[in-house]
């Protein structure tokens, strides 16, 4: 006897549910999100709105040495992640990414300042002091001279690194 075909109404009800493959993809995404949270330090993790159960599971992950045990535990973390406020967690990840981009941009600006100071010398120092009046002019001059000397002699840029650290401290980054 032939199998009865579903009516259009029955098909609509079936289409509402996600497929098994889609559920698996979502679970793998949650497990990846859990892996990212596990890789973070406890201080970084504190920014996220996570439940106590999930925090305990994340802490417990560090004690698991067996590969298969860790895989099963990550499935458990993924299961717990389903109950979490995912939009809030993604918002914190976005904020962290934005902070990282701002910090990187500020570091690039300081690298340009460093190169400009080494190239221009005293003129560059005057411009830097106009932008950052709290910087120590004497230390800045000394580091710039040392970096220029190292560049001329073809040595490793140890003073240029020290100059960058001084610029970073002066800019309070």
UniProtKB/TrEMBL annotation:
Signal peptide as annotated in the record: none
Q: Where is this region: Disordered?
A: 1-22
Return the protein name: Dual-action ribosomal maturation protein DarP
Mind telling me which NCBIfam families this protein's record contains? PRK05255.1-1
A single MF term (Gene Ontology): ribosome binding
**UniProtKB keywords:** Cytoplasm, Ribosome biogenesis, RNA-binding, rRNA-binding
Where is it mostly found? Answer: cytoplasm
Q: Name one GO biological process term.
A: assembly of large subunit precursor of preribosome
- Function summary: Member of a network of 50S ribosomal subunit biogenesis factors which assembles along the 30S-50S interface, preventing incorrect 23S rRNA structures from forming. Promotes peptidyl transferase center (PTC) maturation.
User: Where is it located?
Assistant: Cytoplasm
Q: Which InterPro entries match?
A: DarP (IPR006839), DarP_sf (IPR023153)
Output the Gene Ontology cellular-component terms.
cytosol
Q: Which family does it belong to?
A: Belongs to the DarP family.
* One Pfam family per UniProt: DarP
